Amino acid sequence: MAQDTLIPLHQTSDIGKYEYFVFHPKNEHEGCYAIFDLGQESFGYLELELTAERGTAVDIAHGEHLLDKRVRCCIEDRNFADRYICAEGRQSWMMPARRLGCRYLELHLTRTNKPVQIHRIGLKQVSYPVKPRGRFECSNELHNRIYELCTKTLELCMHEHYEDCPWREQALYSSDARIQALCGYYAFGEYDFPEVSLRLLGESLNSDGFLELCAPSVQSTTIPCFSLIWIVAIHEHILFSGRSNLGNEFAQQIDNMLKSYISMCNEQGLMESPQGSRYWNFYEWTPALNGCQKDGKAKIESPLNLFLLESFNSAAEIYKYIGDKARSEYYSLKAEKLKDTLSSMYGSSELLPTQLEPQPKQKIYSQLTESLALITGIPQKQSINDFCKNIVYNENIEKATLCNLLYVYKAVILKSDYKAFVLEDIAEKWGHMLKCGATSCWETIKGAYDFNGAGSLCHGWSTVPIYFYYSLILGVKPLEPGFKTFSVNPYLEEIEQASGEVPTPYGNIAVKWDSSNNVFYVSHPKAINPCISEEPGSLKILTEKY
Fold first, then answer.
1. C-alpha torsion sign, points 347, 353, 358, 359
2. d(C-alpha 146, C-alpha 169), whole Å
3. pLDDT more than 90, % of the chain
């Protein structure tokens, strides 16, 4: 459990007594107010100790910023405030009904014209008892600070299950959980927690073949591609943890889900985006991809089919891991056929439109679509270099927001010339948050101004840099479940030196390199084997088993 953020706790010379703030309401109707800064994003149970007369009303708002000079306690249909009615005299109260995620607390005192003493106020912090088994540090201090920002954010979004954010929703989404788990495998070496979260999502399967939008819950809306992402997350869990139990447990369900989606495909094998009030065909927080413009007309969209392709590839791997050769081969063939179909949709164009059928008057292109196409291995007439050039520099495509930079970065690092872009982009976007005083990662780069003032300043899906610090700078990736075989291919161009430890089920892989003394060092458990495909520059490679 983290240290409590209770304010103030300064003892006076009289042992057992505390200093306090005294507030003098002008009258019982106007009252007075005060704002308390917890110092950083925090999560827990609200605690309050005060002295007041009976009947005094204490309205307590909580929020993440003070851009309006006050805490935003009411945003559209959301209310982030609670009321406590005082007893007589000195009293302590902890709100048992819900936990809060915030940095600031704003108190309004009314129904009294007598002084009110606030002895202490804050949050009794609650967090999942995760231990950071992973470690990363490098010669660039900005990236070290970003790493700390991201790991702190991950911890703030871990309670009974992964949460998208501790302030606004505290909900489990499969897309968010996939990113949180992927980064958490590296930072924490934690496998039990993501397993519970993925199981909760899997158990929310609806009769239409799609998972509920959040779990555990029953929702009126679902996002179709999030069900496909859940299958990818199961594959990654097996790959990092070495545990096949989720694959075995959901083997039949994954098959049923994919067969359901295949039944939604046309003669070409392209999946039609589900229509109706239940289906929110969301892919990205940009106007062209947010799925908010519903017209009820049948559409075939490339992002959904690319996510379907990614899930085919993941299903093939899952079935291979659990020894189901027939289904593994079946989904491998499905993936190859869909690859060929999507490849043909490019035609003479160098970009794949977001909407394939019916062809719109104005075609829209996106970083997300092109990145997914490159990651999933769609055959192209253009070179990988030209592909990456379009993703990074083409001004006519919709740019990805923070969460989908996972796909953008994974795509462009396939070409070594664009690896520097990944680190530069991370430094620009997450460095901007730090310059603005962030103590956790924002939901989007717009911060608190996004979503009509409801933008989250602590969002688990924005911890993407963690994945690339380990997989790109340290260069360590699992090739077989549980890192039984792992690749080591660090990026040495932009960073002078780096070191870290990558957790595995067998123990940590230690990596250290320094371009100034030409030494590249790898230490790993005897049970696992490194695959160093090419010597990293002119560095001398030293490996050690323990």
1. negative
2. 24
3. 82
CB 74 within 8 A of CB 453: no
Question: How does 273-285 read in b/e, with b if 16+ C-beta sit within 10 Å?
Answer: bbeeeebbbbbbb
Distance CA 546, CA 529 (A): 12
With CA atoms as reference, report the closest residue to 507 among 183, 87, 133, 157: 133
Rounded distance between C-alpha atoms, residue 498 and residue 490, angstroms: 9
- b/e per residue 33-46 (b: at least 16 CB within 10 A): beebebeebbbbbb
Task: For residues 73 and 83, give the distance between their C-alpha atoms in angstroms, rounded to a whole number.
Answer: 12
What is the model's pTM? 0.94
Residue 228 DSSP symbol: H
**8 A C-beta contact, residue 202 and residue 250:** yes
- Tell me how far CA of residue 142 lies from CA of 41, 147, 498, in angstroms: 20, 9, 13
Q: How far apart are CA 398 and CA 264, in angstroms?
A: 27
Instruction: Give me the amino acid identity at 208.
Output: D
pLDDT band (50, 70, 90) for residue 2: very low
Average pLDDT value for the chain:
92
Residues in the chain: 546
HEC profile for 354-399? CEEECCCCCCCCEHHHHHHHHHCCCCCCCCHHHHHHHHHHCCCCEC
Give 3-state DSSP helix, strand, coil % of the chain, rounded to 5. Answer: 35, 25, 40
Inter-residue contact 365 to 334 (CB < 8 Å): no
Q: Strand, helix or coil at 82?
A: strand
Tokens of 342: 């999507």
Residue 429 in contact with residue 402, Cβ under 8 Å? yes
Rounded to an integer, the average pLDDT of 127-156 is: 96
264, 209 in Cβ contact below 8 A?
no
Q: What is the pLDDT of residues 335-366, one digit of tens each?
A: 999 999 999 988 667 899 999 999 888 899 99
Tell which residue, 393, 353, 357, 359, has the closest CA to residue 373. 353
